[in-house]
Amino acid sequence: MQIIPVIDLKGGFVVLAAGGDRSRYQPVHHTSSICNNSEITDVVTSFLTLYPFQTFYIADLDAIDGKGNHNKVIDGLLNQYPNIEFWVDTGNSHQALSKATRPRNCKPVIGTESQRLPVSLKTADLILSLDFKHNHALGHPRWLESPGLWPRTVVVMTLDLVGSNKGPDFEKLNKLCYAHPDKQIVAAGGVRDINDLTRLKAIGIAAVLLASALHNGNIDTAILKKF
């Protein structure tokens, strides 16, 4: 099972998510045990000191909310680490992404909370994020009802559990893994420790997105080496 660190960008800094309420997100170094500032390059360096991660997840929260973007700093990171793959969610539509050129190490993420009508992504070289909040699917309901539209890799993003220390939504994740064995299901939201990771691996989760548990030290280098 792959572990993928998360970089949430807001107002020029990496921030730490808190229950999906973006107004409460603060620069990550205020509470992180591994970072002494919240610049994106320094946060990535701190993560790579923990473990040689091959993939990172970046969410440009300003772009997703229509309040600007971090295109320049993201492009700089892609150039700095050409051998690392970056999954990037900027809130763009599939139509906009299909017309854009991107570096080979950038894989776009389509989040259902940012989309209008569903389109087929089955053969697209990107990742779908099925977004949930307070047990409700965000975006058009057909995204959840039409797995034939999904690409191979699907993130299950439970926004209200992000940074909550409440644990993942095991029931939802287990159902999706069982119902869609042909998909690579990625868990996002609520992971606290090695026990959560072990349980997610047992139900067939292909990868896990992590931020809080890396910053607070609950999941350290020794644990990462086990997965």
TrEMBL record:
Pathway: Amino-acid biosynthesis
Endpoints of the signal sequence: none
Keyword Amino-acid biosynthesis: yes
Positions of transmembrane segments: none
Any Pfam family the entry gives: His_biosynth
Gene3D superfamilies in the record: Aldolase class I
Keyword Amino-acid biosynthesis: yes
InterPro entries in the cross-refs: Aldolase_TIM (IPR013785), His_biosynth (IPR006062), Isoase_HisA-like (IPR044524), RibuloseP-bd_barrel (IPR011060)
Lineage top rank: taxon: Bacteria
Alphabetical keyword list: Amino-acid biosynthesis, Histidine biosynthesis
Family: Belongs to the HisA/HisF family.
Descriptive protein name: Histidine biosynthesis protein
Organism of this sequence: Methylomonas albis
